[in-house]
Amino acid sequence: MLIVGERVSVAANDKQELVPTVATIRPVVVEEIKAVWVDRGFYREAAVQAVERKPDGTPRGVTVYAAGEKPSHHKTVANWLPQAEPAAPGPEATAQEGQGASIENRSGPGPLQDAPADGGAGV
Question: Could you tell me if 62 and 51 are in contact, meaning their C-beta atoms sit under 8 angstroms apart?
Fold first, then answer.
């Protein structure tokens, strides 16, 4: 199931908008939300933690997937040659760094391929 949320805001950018946007959907299908996909403008570490964790710090069972840094369009021949697998991030890595490693891993699926096969809801 795909749930698309909508919300209008007068904010100049989306950095403060992740939590209130998810909150507009959460009362309706709170138990069904397992993944939230947003563009990179919504990404802020504190906002991701607020969506993924309860106030007491325990996980909600929701994972936020946001686009990482915008890659350069300028490629060289070296960019097209086989590259070594990136090292896995350590336990001190931020959520964005951990997600970036998943996206950059050429041998495994990225977050979008990890979508729930059982039809779990995403925002």
Answer: yes
What ranges make up the beta strands (E) of the chain? 33-38, 63-66, 121-122
Query: Residue 82 CA to chain centroid, in angstroms?
Result: 27
Cβ burial 102-117 (10 Å sphere, 16+ → b, else e): beeeeeeeebeeebee
Q: Which residues contact 111 (CB under 8 A, 6 or more apart)?
A: 35, 37, 63, 65, 99, 102, 103
pLDDT tens-digit profile, the chain (123 residues): 667 777 888 888 888 899 998 888 866 676 778 888 888 888 889 999 999 999 999 998 999 998 877 777 777 888 788 888 878 878 887 766 666 554 444 444 444 444 444 444 444
**Burial class of residue 80 in the structure, from the number of CB atoms within 10 Å of its CB (0-12 exposed, 13-18 middle, 19+ buried):** exposed
What does the alpha-carbon distance between residue 75 and residue 87 come to, in Å, rounded to a whole number?
A: 22
